[in-house]
Write a structure and sequence with these properties.
binds aspartic acid, 8-stranded mixed β-sheet, 445 residues, binds adenosine-5'-diphosphate, 16 strands, VC0802-like, 2 domains, binds magnesium ion, 6-stranded antiparallel β-sheet, Carbamate kinase, alpha/beta
Length: 445
């Protein structure tokens, strides 16, 4: 299904740093005023005003923990309340926040759960943003619903559409909704991105604008390559590959609701609204750029199994994976060669409920059931995904990648050309991760 061509409605989600201070909110106001089609606004709770600041959401989780220990909320709560009241007064808003602040405080003191407490950052700030923009406030609890399994209930879409059917502006706070029990429930951290995507789907928007503090998805993590260039256009699938490997600009689950309706996402910078940002679309013209982005994460272990003639041993691969399945371990990749098979596992998967490593058990079970000629375990691995649609077909791409790594003296420990043809994954030692990303970036940027 594609959005109706008549739709020109824009959904604008603003992240924590975009709404952190009165000065930031003035930028938000200018962005909204500049385009009458920006009619539904989804704000986060105030994020960090500067590097030393703490997100309101984190302070609210802290309050809930303090209350659970029977301690007074004291200065932590006062800091939160002051944050909201001073933003409202700096903006000159005629908005009495006292009743809602008192209610939230009382409910947290009386033992409200963590989801309730955390969601109040968005719930309260939504009122501030609505007052600033002269928009109607819609409590997300009245329009976003979760089902018995904790997944989004499809009735959400109709509820949003019905509630926002007028011609004016609406503000729907991000991050939360109502569980089947009637209690407040949140998405996982960073979940205002998900709310924005759901609202875009419900309203059949022409575009989902996601306003943040960078001018789009950058080709790689700016903490590794400071001058990393923004990506002009990327497909939903390519972005998914990058986010899975750690590019954290957009919540992983935010793609699905918009992809279903072919609604493009536009990542924009609140501090530089003149920049075009990144468009995330269903299909793109690959042009000259084979590689769109590079992402890497630490924390993997490779288990390498060697056995002569394993290729002719029917069921060998299945029995290897059975070992992992029986121990409740999911795997990331299984590159194979003649007589060798590797299994790459995230270290998080190797920690048992008792916090002890399950690795010894893996080794023991593989030895016992598969009798390999050799079994090698390499901990401390980082994986790097170099992503671009059709890159596996592009002549010489792999050669360029490996030459760049060799020149940078990076030791490649594992290679997996994913069957998706969207990426090449390499495994390197954790200590060489940044160096490897820089080498790949310089080759393809
Ligand atoms: P918001 O609060 O607006 O939702 P986030 O902090 O969730 O913003 O996401 C934006 C941040 O993501 C950037 O400030 C940047 O530090 C980080 N980031 C990590 N990888 C990338 C990347 N490849 N491109 C852009 N930003 C990235
Ligand atoms: N405020 C929430 C968080 O900090 C949700 C969000 O910002 O998207 O995780
Ligand atoms: Mg975010």
């Amino acid at each position: 299904m594609s959005p109706s061509p008549a739709s020109s409605l824009k959904i604008a989600k603003f992240g924590g740093t975009s709404v952190a201070t009165a000065a930031q909110l003035r930028k938000v106001q200018a962005i909204i005023d500049a385009d009458p089609q920006r009619r539904v606004i989804v704000p986060s709770a105030p994020g960090k005003a500067d590097a030393k600041d703490t997100k309101v959401t984190d302070l609210l989780y802290l309050c809930q923990q303090i209350a659970a220990q029977g301690q007074p909320l004291g200065a932590v709560w006062d800091g939160i309340a002051k944050r909201f009241t001073s933003i409202a007064s700096e903006l000159g808003l005629k908005l009495d926040l006292r009743p809602v602040l008192d209610e939230v405080r009382t409910r947290i003191e009386q033992g409200a759960n963590a989801d309730y407490a955390a969601s109040r950052g968005e719930a309260i700030h939504g009122r501030v943003v609505a007052a600033l923009l002269g928009a109607e406030y819609v409590d997300a609890a009245d329009v976003v619903f979760f089902d018995r399994a904790g997944r989004l209930d499809a009735k959400t879409f109709a509820a949003i559409k019905a509630r926002c059917s007028g011609s004016g502006r609406y503000v729907i706070p991000g991050f939360y909704g109502t569980a089947i029990t009637g209690e407040i429930k949140t998405f996982s951290r960073g979940g205002s991105d998900v709310t924005g995507a759901i609202v875009a789907n419900a309203m059949d928007a022409a575009i989902y604008e996601n306003w943040t503090d960078v001018s789009g998805v950058l080709m790689t993590d700016p903490r590794v390559v400071a001058e990393a260039k923004p990506i002009a256009e990327i497909t939903y699938r390519e972005l998914r590959e990058l986010s899975y490997m750690g590019a954290s600009v957009l919540h992983e689950e935010a793609v699905f609701p918009v992809r279903e309706k072919g609604i493009p996402i536009n990542i924009r910078n609140t501090n530089r609204p003149e920049d075009p940002g990144t468009r995330i679309v269903a299909e793109r013209d690959p042009g000259h750029q084979v590689v769109v982005g590079i992402a890497g994460t630490k924390g993997f272990t490779v288990i390498n199994i060697e056995k002569a003639m394993m290729n002719s041993e029917i069921g060998f691969g299945r029995r290897v994976l059975d070992v992992f399945e029986h121990l409740g371990i999911s795997f990331e990749h299984t590159p194979t060669g003649i007589d060798t098979m590797s299994v790459v596992v995230s270290d998080k998967q190797l920690i048992g409920a008792d916090k002890a490593s399950k690795l010894d058990q893996v080794v023991e079970d593989i030895q016992a059931t598969l009798k390999p000629d050799d079994l090698k375990v390499t901990p401390g691995m980082a994986l790097i995904a170099t992503v671009g649609q059709g890159m596996n077909h592009a002549v010489g791409t792999a050669a360029r990648l490996f030459t760049a790594l060799a020149k940078a003296r990076v030791n490649v420990r594992m290679i997996d050309q994913g069957s998706s043809e969207q990426n090449i994954i390499v495994g390197v030692e954790e200590a060489e991760l940044a160096q490897a990303i820089r080498a790949i970036y310089n080759e393809f940027a």
